[in-house]
Amino acid sequence: MSTNIIEIAKRAGVSIATVSRALNNNGPVREETRQKILQISRDLNYKPNPIARGLSRKRTDTIGVILPELVDEFFMDIIRGIDEEAYRANKYVLVSSSHSQRDVIETFLEFMVSGRVDGVILMIPHLHEEAAELIRKSKHPLVMLNVGRENKDVVSFNIDNYQGAYAITRHLIEHQNERIAMIKGYPGNCDAEGRLMGYRDALDHSGIALDEDLVVQGDFTVRSGYDGFRQLMSRNKKPDAIFAANDMMALGIYEAARISGIRIPDDISVAGFDDIFLSRLLLPRLTTVHAPIQELGIRAIQYLFKIIDGEVDPKTPHREELSTSLIIGGSCGCPHQSGHNLF
Amino acid sequence: MSTNIIEIAKRAGVSIATVSRALNNNGPVREETRQKILQISRDLNYKPNPIARGLSRKRTDTIGVILPELVDEFFMDIIRGIDEEAYRANKYVLVSSSHSQRDVIETFLEFMVSGRVDGVILMIPHLHEEAAELIRKSKHPLVMLNVGRENKDVVSFNIDNYQGAYAITRHLIEHQNERIAMIKGYPGNCDAEGRLMGYRDALDHSGIALDEDLVVQGDFTVRSGYDGFRQLMSRNKKPDAIFAANDMMALGIYEAARISGIRIPDDISVAGFDDIFLSRLLLPRLTTVHAPIQELGIRAIQYLFKIIDGEVDPKTPHREELSTSLIIGGSCGCPHQSGHNLF
DNA sequence: TAATGTAATGTAAGCGTTTACATTCTGCAA
DNA sequence: TTGCAGAATGTAAACGCTTACATTACATTA
Questions:
Q1: How long is the CA B255 to C1' C4 vector, in angstroms?
Q2: Model's pTM, two decimal places?
Q3: What element of type H or E holds A288?
């Protein structure tokens, strides 16, 4: 490796204990000695070995982040928020995508039990019982992202899917649309469920009866949006608006519409969810729900730090929902925006 | 923490050395004993503490990745490649964006010197002498991404910017364009430099004199593409094609063109570089250069593993350039594609 | 049966820190 | 001068593992 505390101690003519105290600024050290030690370690470009330190302090200054994938803009934004905060707090971030369902648990355990990290930020869109059980039993600092509301006994930060979906559906209704379709995500995926719920209730509260024929299954991919659109347009009673459970699927709708010569918003209104960068490029710009994703990451890690530092009780469940906001583009039928909003 | 090797040893009625040997499958252990130990550690859900292990083995099974930012699709793709490979090799990935120029060095040192990681993948688009010096001196496993060709004494994996830019410029020339402009990136940024060089040489080799008025400065952001376009169109001799040094700037061109009513490709040809997902959404689809970014990450980490495992000499410089390929969209004037290629 | 080689296991020394506890200094009051 | 408090420093154990080396068990051969 390189210089260690013993070397510094030797050169300064003191014991390693004194060096440690001087460097960490805990325990009393004569000012003169401290300066000398500091000078020497600067000269030798000494960095304490975090592994050894971790072993003795039982702290790694590292937090683990487990995401379902590393592909999307969505996840990138989360990591960005986390990284930013971690940097500020002088912590390190171990990322891992859960390469398979089975594997989430593996990685999670490895992180937790082994002491590789001080805490974990975990996102599992589809939380099955086995994993849930494990998580509940775990005594280690853990913050979850976007879990269903039924998970009452964990700490979680969430995008308020329900509220967002509710609001945008209301908006579509206000456009005098009557037959509002939805391309939903997988059942079991909590984001998908929340958004579906918001959509349902918005219709209901507006006195519009839900036509089950107008809700088709998607899986958050562009392709499934494309397919969903075609499926909906083959119904004998066509929808006059479509709410896609995420922007990627809305993108698929645009594509399918373009190919079949159906104009947005003239022939049909479209809305999405997430407000990914892409959605600004569409013509007309997509009306969607802005999800404060980066902030989600920031808030999650901030809370995690609090747990680690013992400022809050790790056993106390805590749930926060970050509220979304409506992004009005031209796809819903609102007056066209003058231009894009790219920068 | 939790169960440790001593606990296992106690329960199995053997010494910790035997447990270690059984678990790591090195050194002789009676089959019966091994099974017993394995069973017990399974029962107790024992995971060796990687910190302690790291201290004694001088290995962390972790590699550090330092990228300039964590914002772009570009970087996401790199991480994805790295994560994939790391997972396969049972290694962990510590990511960090270099929050400031000054800071790259700090982080780099922290990673390297302190032994927090076994090796580093480093990307610094703008490598100044101070950092270069440091890197040269470092004895630790290191692979760099996208560095200039002048850095002969390091291990690096690179996108072949020159070849890509050369090819796409040639393509624009074949479209009978004569006045081919370029929105370049910052000087000093090696990607920018390589692409500029390729553009220059392609013109030169085709006997087209370079008009310096047609090369304007950008900085890889959408905004600078937008501005660059307007700047170019205010020249008294307007270009008939523009090569943007990356897709993001090409996006800015599209936007500016749309606003000023200039049609692509009818009034002007446009080309980009990177082949980000976005570029497929543009109408017409952007003609661009596909950069195998994810593969870049994969190759880099694979080589890094080799260095760490001592299979290749870390001191031997090594440079690889991954070749790019042309993506023909409609923006260059080629016959319109039938449709998009979103999935 | 004793000697020998090898397989199985144990002992203990690291790895580089932190930190509880012990020791030595220092200055000041008695 | 002595005693003593508190500051400064030192000693050594601990963190949980790996591994060189020592020891023991066992089978084989003379």
A1: 87
A2: 0.92
A3: strand A288-290
